[in-house]
Amino acid sequence: MPNVSMTVNGKAASGEVEGRTLLVGFLRDQLGLTGTHVGCDTSQCGACVVHVDGKAVKACTMLAAEADGADVKTIEGMAAPDGTLSTIQQAFQDHHGLQCGFCTPGMVMSAAALLAENASPSEQEIREYLEGNICRCTGYHNIVKAIMAAAGHDVSAIAAE
Amino acid sequence: MTAGRALPHDAAALHVTGAARYVDDQPLPAGTLHLAFGLSQEAHADLTALDLDAVRAAPGVVAVMTADDLPHASDVSPGSGDEPLLATGSVHYVGQPVFLVVATSHLAARAAARLGQVGYATKPALLTVEDALAADSRFEEGPRIYARGDADAALASAPHTITGEIEIGGQEHFYLEGQAAAALPQEAGDMHILSSTQHPTEIQHKVADAIGRPMHAVRVETRRMGGGFGGKESQGNALAVACAVAAHLTGRPCKMRYDRDDDMVITGKRHDLKIRYAAGFDGEGRITGITFEHLFRCGWAQDLSLPVADRAMLHADNAYFLPNVRITSHRLRTNTQSATAFRGFGGPQGMMGIERVMDEVAHTLGLDPTEVRARNFYASAPSGPGTAKRFGGKHSPKGPETARDTTPYGQQVEDFLLHDMMPDLARRAGLPARRAAVARWNADNDILKRGIALTPVKFGISFTLTHLNQAGALVHVYADGSVHLNHGGTEMGQGLFQKVAQVAARELGVPLDAVRITATDTGKVPNTSATAASSGSDLNGMAVRDACITLRSRIADVVSENRCRAEDVRFEDGHVHVGQDTLTFAEAAQAAYQARVSLSATGFYKTPKLAWDRIAGQGRPFFYFAYGAAVTEVVIDTLTGENRILRTDILHDCGTSLNPALDIGQIEGGYVQGAGWLTMEELVWDDTGRLRTHAPSTYKIPAMSDRPSVFNVELWDAPNREETIYRSKAVGEPPFMLGMSAFFALSDACAACGPNYPALDAPATPERVLAAVERARG
Predict the structure, then answer these.
(1) What are the 2Fe-2S ferredoxin-type domain coordinates in residue numbering (chain A) (predicted)?
(2) Test mutation, B17, B255, B657, chain A, max A CBs within 10 A
(3) Residue B523: half-sphere exposure toward Cβ, Cα within 13 Å
(4) Which of A108, B171, B351, B674 could form a disulfide with B270 if both were Cys (CB 3.0 to 4.6 A apart)?
(5) How far is B467 from B544, CA to CA, in rounded Å?
(6) Between 3.30.450.180, 3.30.365.10, 4.10.800.10, 2.60.120.280, what CATH number should domain B369-387+401-463+620-777 receive?
(7) pTM for the whole structure
């Protein structure tokens, strides 16, 4: 079995994987980073989104071997080392952008990738960028609001506070 | 005060950091085995051969089981005893588990499960309600009928009548976390189960039977689900039982997680149905007589279909007084997945029938549908304590002379809020002006047509199986003043744990962070009901309050000694006030401990006032009703049928909210899920009974871009007239039905295309919208 090495959340990680092992499997089963979730198994729901070399990637779509040598960031790497939440994480908590929480890690990772590309997205841009992240609980309203708040928009006027 | 505050979800910080654990995230012991089912490829057949050699020989396979290998009868139904874990001699739907693979990894188990060679002697399959009705294939001996007055005579003498039929599709739950369970064998044959379930007690019962042990040998733990929506009320039984049996036989921990495709193929969904209706009404649109015939497609096993179909009958009135009414409900057995609980539990289906009638009556008479709805509303709440209790089974008044405040099943509607809520919502939403603007738009535009609709909701709160309306709690106070909270409710994202913790904090007068929320555990609170029927906070909040009152009273007795009367001791702000003295809660707890007083208490609650005869269809099945109303505006493209929601305004009744943030979240999410059911979520079975929409690639749930651009949600702030926990109201299911406003807005847009009634079916996919536009044009 091939050996893969990558940086995950700033730390070196390596292991033997099958050629068919998905990145999500390597992260969850071998590294124990279970915050990256498997929702639909077919890269459609977005619960598995991580960052690979700074880009949002569905970890159910990528083989672990393809991430060899890459810099990978997962939801576990988003807060500061002392546990302080990132702006986006704090916004999801403060604006009730979650219910069952299963989609939340993927939402946070996609939102972070969006804000890295576009620091001040419009509501429409948020909605289009996160179309590949499914939530069954919230109806999305508070997720959009959380991302807008994280981007520094004034969301006090957005209804359904 | 803690209760009533808009606090975040209790696990929000864990969710945003990925630290919240679901079943599949739990670290399990080395050597844990993984399970997968081999599934039937036929809708109805006798099994003639089962060649599993290739499965056994596949890499990583440890064991393969068929029904013959199970040590005990392993029924996984919620009560009717008609769902063997593995097929016994015959199969009844495509996707039915036939054999079980136990392997060293999830992938190995799934790959091996595909290698089974199953011989089938194919039999005719009943796939549609028409098939089943013709074959008299049904649950119960015949249709269930609830009636009041003489509907046929009223129809015959009505100034106007309509007859019609509406098709209403089913709905996949699409909980983001698929079904999952794990079994950890303990000493002496005991079993510890981790399950993503709304009903730990039922899992405990089913596992105990399957391994031949009493319930005391099985402990089921559920910290959270990644969504449930009713889909984890009974559909998790098979996984937990499979894990337990495999763990029992191998002695090793076992885990099972359905792959999403397997999940959608194996598990039941919301019941689809057809509703046939005939309505008689006067020139102002008031219903004088009405009949409904519900044709429920229940699938191969009974599951929860009887109470689901009952609840549909109990919501066939929605918010309207129906003087002469007959509701006939067929629960039809078909060779498809066994349809199951889904948010609203038949209520949404029942309401769709009467809302369709309101829409068509208004169209027939050329009246404003909102006005027609208001004219048919139940009477305003009767005033004052002098009002006689007037539900009463066989003795309740019958026929048109009945006051316009009594449901077809004899329950008086005591707190009808919609006369006040609907005008308030219409004003907030600017409905009259927007209706005029929609009419202008439609006069000016040929291709894009707009529609707008207001629909109300009146939803009955309580399990209709009366004995389920009970709950237990267990609360410990430790000597340092910290509190351990447990109750029978399960957390699936709805925020139940936080609401109940807010109750405990208020009762004990401690800060919320002094209260530790703990996983639902059959070893702590026994004999619980499913977290379902929107009852979670009503039942468990009261049970926890009861336990806290016991603890408070014991502590007060200790600290008040020689100082004041026990009833004058106050528990507030983390302190216990005793006359002129103030102790910290921890000091008071320590004092009770030193006085050798128990600081552990159970609590219990049962819902009062319920009396229901489901065969007669008479009584008081519901403690109270929750109300809501929504206005939705949509636009359709008459060339393609594509459509979108432009704006939604909601006013919803949560009584005195326990947590407005969580309640608004339920309302927003419920509306979007309900609108999804009626607009874009389409389940398609082919003519061999195979579900063709078994992944999000083909089954479309609302995405972020489908959310209404303008989405206003307000709470109707008035205390529940009944003595619920702090006068709050249940909120899990009722908002789901607000999604009906999207459907009837689409109907309104279709009706703008021509003179005829469009008779839109659900879900209103582009194809169905186009067909409705054609019908409108005639």
Answers:
(1) 2-78
(2) B17
(3) 13
(4) B171
(5) 19
(6) 3.30.365.10
(7) 0.96
